[in-house]
Amino acid sequence: MIRSLSFILFFLGLIHHSFAQSHQKRKVLFLGNSYTYVNNLPQLIKDIALANGDTLVFDSNCPGGHTFNNHFNNATSLSKINAQAWDCVILQAQSQEPSFSPGQVAAQTLPYAIKLDSLIKNNNACTETVFFETWGRKNGDASNCGSYPPICTYLGMQNRLRASYKLFADTTQSIMAPAGEAWRKSIAQNPSLELYSSDQSHPVLEGSYLTACVFYETLFHKSVLSNTYTAGVSSINVSFLQQIAHDVVNDSLLTWNIGKYNPCGTTGLNQLSSQHNIVLYPNPAQNVLQTNTTASYKIYDVLGNLCLSGNKSNTINIESLKSGVYFIELYSFDSTKKIRFVKE
Questions:
Q1: Is the pTM of the predicted complex or chain greater than 0.90?
Q2: Long-range contact list for 332-336, CB < 8 A, 24+ apart?
Q3: What are the chain's domains?
């Protein structure tokens, strides 16, 4: 317990030190849909950053209704991923899809979150993937409520979105930007402050401003409190929304994986992985996996069920597995490694 507390205090000290820094520049790509392009969310983040002496250089591809699957098969999205060495790439899923049942998300959405993350990190190993957790619809998802009752209400839908985006971030060792959680707290504390447009789904300016504040703190690791950029939102609402964003991001930094993984560093989980010399390929795979060393293995699905196991092999036949996301534990004479992979 003392050791854990010491780590948290040390970590928060690093964050505080980072907040004190100024004149940061971040190159960010946004891949999403209308939740990102309505009210020009990237520009709002850029203007907030500028008011704090920071620079956001951004590009985006946000066709309406796009899913992770759509982006993975979108030539423009793929070209933009490879256009330069981004500091961060923001991934925002179609607004309803991550709220569906855990089984459906694991089969239809998670594999493409993993594939996009792999493309991002293949372009530049130092790029951080950031999953944009969105918000539940104001009165739940009426169009899908009949087939999956948990999303019949706002809170039910929001709970599923949080769980799915957390799954995406944890599975890929990436960051979760908790915009939906900031909306949840704002609605609970000040339900009269309207964040939704008349369609009860897309944001009005106040909703986008709150989201932009969450992203500023997530991307720059600096406080948004007392930022002078208002975007035309009233001063009283600006102060409230900035405080909500600041509280949500900083109350649960490790939950959102902010600072937890360093894609170019030699600490934490990445250091542990770098010590293990087992390599698995190809990934995604169709019928056969290969390893660079003779290893025993166990393969689990996303729910932790053991699917396959074997001893001392360089070649692993996965033809019997259904398409989806799996985890393989590989054991060689001097190391152990757990790797996620996609069976196509």
A1: no
A2: 332/278, 332/293, 332/294, 332/295, 332/296, 334/277, 335/275, 335/276, 335/277, 335/278, 336/276
A3: 2-269 (3.40.50.1110), 276-343 (2.60.40.3080)
